[in-house]
C-alpha cells in the first residue's frame, strides 16, 4: 500500500514534525470505514493505513516512538471513489500518557474502554462525568445514541460477540438510570472483528476492549 499525498499533506507533515521531541510518542491513527477489506497481514484497513503512512513519511522517527492505531469512521464512504480520503490523524503524546484513556471523546461520540473479560467499564470519574453530560445533551437535542461493543482477540469469537453486546448493554443501562429514554438507545456488537490496534500488547488489547458511542441527529 503506497499512500498518496492529497492537497496540503506536505504542510501537515511539516506541522507534525515541528512537534517532535524525544519525550513524546507520535500516535498515527489510520481511519477506515466498516466493510473495507483489510490487506493481508493486517487486522483492519485502518491499521494498514497507519503502517503505510509511518513507513512512507516517518522513517526518521524510531519505531519505539510511534504508536499505531485504527479508528472506525461512523460515516458512509465518499460516493465519488476518486475523491481524496482523509486517511489519518496525528498527535504527539507524552511517554507517561501512552496508557489509553478510559473515555476518549471523538468527533461524533466517544470511546469507553473496559478491563479484560469484563462487562464493567473501567472505574474512572471521567467516564461517569461523560455519561452524565451525554444524558443531559440528548435530553435537550433528542439525538439517538448508538452503542457498539468491541473486544480484544482473547477467547472464542462467539463468546467475544456476546461480551461486546454485554458491554454495550451495560453502558445503555447506565444511561437509562441517568434519565435517557430506552427508545433513544440502540446496542450492537462487533466482538473482536474490528480492532483499532494489533492485539499484541496489553496496551493495544485495552484499546480494543471498548464501547463506541455514536450520536445521531434527529
Describe this structure in words.
There is one protein chain. With 218 residues, the protein is an alpha/beta fold. Helix content is 31%, strand content 25%. The strands form 2 sheets. Strands 4-5-8-6-7 form a 5-stranded mixed beta sheet.
Structure at a glance:
This protein has 218 residues and is an alpha/beta fold. It has helices at residues 9-18, 45-57, 125-141, 157-177, 202-208, and strands at 24-33, 66-73, 88-94, 103-106, 109-113, 144-150, 185-191, 210-216.
Counting helices, strands and paired strands, the structural category is: alpha/beta
Give the helices and strands as they follow along the chain: HEHEEEEHEHEHE
Radius of gyration over C-alpha positions, nearest whole angstrom: 18 Å
Please tally the β strands and state the result.
8
Mean pLDDT, nearest integer?
87
Helix content: 25-40%
Poorly predicted tracts of residues: none
Number of helices: 5
Q: Biggest sheet, open or closed, and with what strands and sense?
A: 5 strands, mixed
Dominant shape: globular
Strand order, largest beta sheet: 4-5-8-6-7
Query: What proportion strand?
Result: 25-35%
User: What separation lies between the terminal Cα atoms?
Assistant: 38 Å
Amino acid at each position: 500500500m503506497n499512500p498518496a499525498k492529497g492537497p496540503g499533506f506536505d504542510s501537515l507533515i511539516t506541522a507534525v514534525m515541528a512537534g517532535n521531541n524525544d519525550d513524546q510518542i507520535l500516535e498515527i491513527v489510520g481511519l477506515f470505514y466498516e466493510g473495507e477489506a483489510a490487506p493481508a497481514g493486517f487486522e483492519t484497513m485502518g491499521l494498514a493505513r497507519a503502517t503505510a503512512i509511518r513507513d512512507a513519511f516517518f522513517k526518521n522517527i524510531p519505531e519505539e516512538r510511534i504508536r499505531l492505531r485504527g479508528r472506525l469512521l461512523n460515516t458512509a464512504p465518499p460516493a465519488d471513489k476518486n475523491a481524496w480520503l482523509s486517511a489519518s490523524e496525528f498527535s504527539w503524546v507524552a511517554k507517561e500518557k501512552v496508557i489509553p484513556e478510559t473515555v476518549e471523546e471523538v468527533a461524533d461520540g466517544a470511546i469507553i474502554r473496559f478491563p479484560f473479560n469484563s462487562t464493567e467499564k473501567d472505574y474512572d470519574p471521567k467516564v461517569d462525568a461523560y455519561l452524565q453530560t451525554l444524558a443531559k445533551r440528548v435530553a435537550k437535542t433528542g439525538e439517538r445514541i448508538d452503542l457498539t461493543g468491541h473486544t480484544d482477540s482473547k477467547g472464542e469469537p462467539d463468546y467475544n460477540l456476546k461480551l461486546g453486546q454485554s458491554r454495550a448493554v451495560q453502558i445503555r443501562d447506565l444511561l437509562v438510570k441517568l434519565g435517557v429514554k430506552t427508545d433513544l438507545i440502540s446496542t450492537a456488537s462487533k466482538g473482536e472483528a474490528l480492532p483499532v490496534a494489533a492485539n499484541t500488547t496489553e496496551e493495544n488489547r485495552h484499546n480494543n476492549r471498548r464501547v463506541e458511542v455514536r450520536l445521531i441527529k434527529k
